[in-house]
Write a structure and sequence with these properties.
Blueprint lengths: L6 H4 L1 H7 L8 H5 L10 E2 L24 E2 L3 E13 L7 E6 L8 E4 L3 E8 L7 E4 L13 E3 L23 E3 L1 E6 L6 E7 L5 H6 L3 E7 L1 H4 L9 E9 L27 E2 L2 E4 L2 E2 L2 E4 L3 E8 L6 E6 L8 E6 L2 E9 L1 E4 L4 E7 L8 E6 L8 E7 L27 E9 L4 E3 L18 E8 L3 E5 L4 E6 L14 E4 L4 E7 L5 E7 L2 H5 L3 E6 L2
The site of copper (II) ion has 5 residues, from loops.
EC number: 1.16.3.4
Pfam families: Cu-oxidase_2, Cu-oxidase_3
InterPro entries: Cu-oxidase-like_N, Cu-oxidase_C, Cu-oxidase_fam, Cu_oxidase_Cu_BS, Cupredoxin, TAT_signal
Length: 522
């Protein structure tokens, strides 16, 4: 029951039919719309001249302080609001940001210590806040209909028009919500972002995203590079209108979703890192920890340093979505689909002083083929870090112990995107896994879909009948499912009984109904 799918099972309509789902996958029309680099989406060109590369300094989002702490928890307050930011030289950009900044402030939690975040919103539209990668009970998980907003939002024009979302009328809008995160989870790079029904794409695009780091003793004992040597890097593509505002091809009248032409995904032509276009970071000749996050709506990244240092293997991966790997993995390049994280160490002492090392995106071309640069300083600046051979122990979920195998087909429907042939409808649960039991979940598609599960992470068992890919190691919460490939994962939901989401993290697909609910039961 836990054997990986064979290639024949995974390829084409015959394979899907063989799974007994009674659905067929129409491959050809969709495949034609892939861009040359195989990118899922359509490029929206900026209407202003693109800013110079490597002129802006890399910003690092400020760490938010708790408003108070007691024996049991740390308490934070965040207000989402409109603000003016100087992202591009000579232009103002209106952002929708947590605390008015893009990215939002970084939160830091200790593993096992409860974190309570009170969110308020002064935005023109209501918002739902999801902690991506958090092991969070349902009522704090940022369900797309559990909204925060002003009293003026109670009617929410357009909400009922959400395609395939009968039941969106069930939304509740509160002036503030307390999101309680037990943080019973290991150290990892999490991020929080908007998750509003039908509007996640435009609202994240306008800036509603920030880092939330979880730290623990095990990680601290490794003595990883920290302080100025630890850089969270939120990579996101955006396009700009002539006046410097974010350009997003939304529908007229504030209806949810995107224009038809952009249904596969919106790709921007400006690469932002922590909100700055193609920034430059000055680094010392020592080890750095880069927490890479792809916060793009639809763009996939293949990140590599250029030049490669002699001997290659410049990106030393120590962690994935769900925290530390067992051992470091050396890569020349890492792939990151939307929402994926990769925690890498780079030893800049492998480069001569004065080298400009670019972080390239091998899936982009021209401006989108570049991301940022590091200028290697002359100071030795050795922070004393030595790479250990072993990082952590990772429990293996044994697929032979799986009590159930489920298949989820991600494909285009008549008008929108579907999971197992159905558009998202809040309250309709399509799977009921038991807590504490291992299951094998298969994700099958004819297109690119970064598939994300809420609540608990999983382990990739294989792709397209083979083993896991080079970027599938460790605990994952988002996996890049490629056209005509299937991915098989082992998952065990441990923590909380309730209703949770699985969905595609291409935000245009998500808004256009490629989402479903599952219910965990005791
Ligand atoms: Cu990062 Cu349900 O999302
Ligand atoms: Cu998708």
């Amino acid at each position: 029951m836990s054997r990986p799918l064979t290639r024949r099972q995974l390829l084409g309509a015959g394979g899907v039919a063989a799974l007994g789902l009674g659905v067929s996958i129409g491959v050809p029309p969709l495949m034609n719309r892939l861009l040359p680099g195989g990118e899922p989406g359509k490029l929206l060109r900026s209407a202003l001249p693109l800013p110079a590369r490597y002129a802006a300094e890399l910003p690092v989002p400020a760490v938010l302080k708790p408003v108070r702490s007691d024996a049991g928890a740390d308490y934070y307050e965040i207000t989402a609001r409109r603000a003016t930011a100087r992202l591009l030289p000579g232009h103002d950009t209106e952002v929708w940001g947590y605390q008015g900044t893009f990215p939002g402030p970084t939160l830091e939690s200790r593993s096992g210590r409860r974190t309570v975040v009170t969110h308020r919103s002064e935005l023109p539209r209501p918002t739902a806040v999801h902690l991506h990668g958090g092991h969070t009970p349902h009522d704090s998980d940022g369900h797309p209909l559990d909204l925060v907003g002003s009293a003026a939002h109670h009617d929410m024009p357009g909400m009922g028009d959400m395609p395939g979302t009968a039941g969106a009328e069930g939304a509740t809008v509160l002036p503030q919500r307390d999101y309680t995160y037990p943080m019973a989870q290991r150290a990892a790079t999490l991020w929080y972002h908007d998750h509003t029904m039908g509007f996640t794409g435009p609202q994240v695009y306008r800036g509603l995203a920030g880092f939330h780091l979880v730290r623990d003793e095990e990680e601290a004992a490794l003595g990883l590079p920290q302080g100025p040597h630890e850089l969270p890097l939120m990579i996101a593509d955006r396009s700009f209108a002539a006046d410097g505002s974010f350009a997003y091809p939304g529908l007229p009248g504030g209806a949810p979703g995107v224009q038809d032409a952009y249904m596969n995904g919106v790709l921007g032509d400006v690469m932002l890192v922590n909100g700055a276009p193609w920034p430059l970071a000055r680094v010392e000749r020592t080890w750095y920890r880069l927490r890479l996050l792809n916060a793009s709506n639809a763009r996939r990244l293949r990140l590599a340093l250029d030049p490669q240092p002699g001997g290659g293997g410049a990106l030393v991966q120590i962690g994935s979505d769900g925290g530390l790997l067992e051992r470091p993995l050396r890569h020349d390049a890492v792939d990151l689909a939307p929402a994926e994280r990769c925690d890498v160490l780079v030893d800049f002492s492998r480069y001569p002083a004065g080298t400009r090392v670019r972080l390239r995106n091998r899936l982009g071309d021209g401006p989108t083929g570049e991301v940022m640069a590091f200028e290697v300083g002359s100071a030795a600046g050795d922070n004393g870090f030595r790479l250990p051979e072993r990082l952590s122990s990772v429990e293996r979920l044994d697929p032979a112990k799986a009590v159930n195998t489920r298949t989820f087909v991600f494909q285009k429907g008549k008008q929108h995107w579907t999971v197992n042939g159905q558009e998202y409808r809040p309250g309709r649960s399509i799977a009921a896994p038991r807590l504490g039991r291992i299951e094998v979940w298969r994700f099958v598609t004819d297109f690119h879909h970064p598939v994300h599960l809420h609540l608990d992470p999983f382990q990739v068992l294989g792709r397209a009948g083979g083993g896991p890919g080079a970027n599938d190691a460790g605990w994952k919460d988002t996996v890049d499912v490629l056209p005509a490939q299937g991915v098989e994962v082992a998952v065990r939901f441990n923590d909380y009984a309730g209703r949770f989401l699985l969905h595609c993290h291409n935000l245009e697909h998500e808004d256009m109904a490629m989402m479903a609910e599952f219910t965990t039961t005791e």
